[in-house]
Design goal:
The complex is a heterodimer of chains A (305) and B (248).
Chain A: H1 9-32, H2 46-51, H3 61-77, H4 85-89, H5 93-97, H6 110-117, H7 132-139, E1 169-171, H8 176-179, H9 200-203, H10 205-212, H11 221-224, E2 225-229, E3 234-239, H12 243-250, H13 268-273, H14 284-288
Antiparallel strand pairs in A: 1-3, 2-3
Chain B: H1 2-24, H2 28-31, E1 47-52, H3 61-70, E2 79-87, E3 92-96, E4 111-120, H4 128-132, E5 138-140, E6 146-148, H5 158-162, E7 169-170, E8 177-178, H6 184-187, H7 194-198, E9 204-208, H8 215-222, E10 225-226, E11 238-241
Parallel strand pairs in B: 1-11
Antiparallel strand pairs in B: 1-9, 2-3, 2-4, 5-6, 7-8, 10-11
Chain lengths: 305, 248
């Protein structure tokens, strides 16, 4: 029998094709798969470094304080202390890079304040919320076009005379809306069987009784003794005796109605009434304390409620 | 020989009994009884996020901050704030501030409860978005941040579809997937993300889960929290404190 030696030509060709295909695949892959792909995981490791390269836009209040330290200091002691500068003024990097010439956002109009302070049912009860109509009625503003900043400086909205952080912790002062969603009227009578809540006159009975007989009696204690809730059961309370705080209600201004609280021309009033130079530093309560309440402020709760 | 066979039968029966007891009393959970730890145990930080919803006032400063910091185009959001309103009839309505300045308007009608819920990418430990990306452009960094490779993404949108939290979108300018980067350029420089930085109420808290003394780790030990859609097994790293049960 004539047996030919087996021919491997077809398999050689096959291996040759597979080999070329493999070499091609390796070349193509090396071109297509990006550098650093797979070094850490199934992704390009360099992408992590690239993500860190994005430029900063918000620089923080330290950057603002380099030029505006006076405003930053004012701001740090008042009710807006926790509001970052860039929350209202927008990111400051451009402004800083241009050494103050670059644009910075200057919010205008009532709507800007109301972004945070408009009365909304979903807002936490302890947060300061304004129903513009009711607030204007309370302080006797008749011109509806009046702006928030006509009375409240945004950097120092309540003209606090002390740093809020220095104020002592005080038991929680409840408002109806702390528990009742959307309940804004604190004068509503409580239903029978309503749980007892901690109230000002529990400890300060004498003051509260004296207060009721004087001209401010329609005003809530916390309108002047500002209360800022910090925990579930306590917050910081502060008596604000800066004259500008009294003037929030008592300033003589063209936008006020006739039945507004008595208007004062400030600081002319102090200058006219002053008997000597020492009187030029007086605050409102130095002369008018008797119109508010008796001076004793800390009276321990006597007996039972 | 007979004795020997009897013994082995007894042992066999014992083994079978023990084996079937295993079916009745699963030991898996006993072995894994140690509480799931936060953090990944690696060296370096492992970033995560907490949101104290009860403090949120819905001012949307976070959204404006995010937009300014990251050049997010109009009409798309890396973070957003939802308002939940539970009606007297128990019906849950959710709305989002959509105007350019993100302002919530008052809505008439009595509600049983209402609150704001800020949302953003949950930077899941087991991200779905990463698993579906056909080109490996969606990934989690070793420090726990879900990112999109902006050089490599082909804009197919699979990840946008896959994300159970709706955190991703296609950037209308670059036509690539885009999402919250946890302000990676800020946190790697030791600064807070823009939304944390802008929040006037300290609603948003970010921190390092690998550091037991970080503010976030302490909060998670002290307070109860909820995760969004935990049943999906994505292990989200956005911890919600005081979240209403209506939110999913």
């Amino acid at each position: 029998m004539d047996t030919k030696p087996p021919s491997y030509r077809h398999t050689t060709r096959l291996f040759l094709v597979i080999g070329i295909a493999l070499v091609l695949a390796v070349i193509v892959r090396s071109q297509l798969v990006p550098e650093s792909f797979g070094e850490i995981g199934h992704y390009r490791a360099d992408a992590i470094e690239e993500a860190t390269q994005f430029e900063l836009r918000h620089l923080g209040r330290e950057a603002c304080a380099e030029c505006h330290d006076d405003i930053v200091d004012l701001h740090a002691k008042d009710a807006h202390a926790r509001v970052p500068c860039e929350s209202c003024h927008g990111a400051g990097a451009k402004h800083v890079a241009a050494e103050g010439d670059g644009e910075i956002h200057r919010p205008e109009g009532k709507q800007v304040c109301l972004i945070c302070h408009r009365m909304l049912a979903a807002r936490p009860g302890e947060f300061a919320q304004i129903d513009v109509e009711a607030h204007f009625a309370f302080v006797g503003v008749e011109d509806p076009q009046t702006l928030c900043v006509d009375c409240h400086s945004p950097h120092e909205p309540l003209f606090m005379d002390r740093d809020l952080r220095q104020a002592r912790l005080h038991p929680l002062i409840h408002r109806c809306r702390d528990c009742h969603i959307g309940r804004t009227d604190d004068t509503l009578p409580r239903p029978e069987g309503h749980p007892a809540i901690f109230e000002c006159d529990y400890c300060h009975a004498e003051v509260a009784a004296g207060f009721a007989e004087r001209p401010h009696n329609g005003v809530r204690c916390t309108a002047c003794h500002l209360f800022f809730k910090e925990t579930e059961s306590a917050g910081r309370i502060l008596r604000d005796s800066d004259p500008r705080f009294c003037l929030l209600c008592h300033r003589d201004a063209p936008f006020r109605s006739d039945d507004a609280p008595p208007g004062i021309d400030w600081p002319d009033h102090r200058e006219t009434m002053a008997e000597d130079d020492n009187d030029l530093d007086k605050r409102c309560i130095d002369c008018h304390q008797d119109r508010i309440h008796p001076l004793q402020t800390r009276t321990a709760a006597a007996g039972e409620e | 020989m007979g004795d020997k066979r009897n013994t082995s039968r007894r042992e066999m029966l014992k083994l079978m009994a023990a084996g079937s007891a295993l079916l009745v009393f699963p030991i898996g959970p006993l072995l894994a009884s140690e509480e799931r730890q936060h953090g990944n145990g690696a060296k370096g930080p492992y970033w995560a996020y907490a949101i104290d919803t009860a403090r949120c006032i819905g001012c949307c400063a976070c959204m404006r901050g995010c937009r300014d910091e990251n050049d997010v185009p109009e009409d798309v959001f890396r973070t957003w704030v939802e308002r939940y309103r539970i009606g007297m009839d128990g019906e849950v309505r959710v709305d989002v501030a959509t105007s350019i300045d993100h302002i919530f308007e008052p809505i008439e009608g009595d509600v049983a409860n209402a609150f704001f819920v800020p949302k953003l990418c949950n930077h899941c430990e087991k991200s779905v978005c990463n698993q579906v990306c056909p080109v490996g452009a969606a990934f989690n960094t070793p420090d726990g941040v879900a990112l999109v490779d902006q050089e490599h993404c082909i804009g197919c949108g699979y990840c946008v579809q896959a994300c159970p939290y709706g955190s991703r979108f296609i950037n209308p300018h670059t036509h690539m997937a885009n999402k919250c980067t946890f302000c990676y350029h800020r946190i790697t420089r030791g600064l807070a993300p823009a939304c944390v930085h802008s929040c006037p109420r300290e609603v948003r808290i970010y921190g390092d889960l690998n550091d037991p003394k970080s503010k976030l780790s302490i909060l998670l030990r002290q307070r109860s929290y909820r995760l969004l859609k935990p049943e999906l097994g994505t292990h989200p790293k956005c911890y919600y404190l005081g979240l209403g049960r209506e939110v999913v």
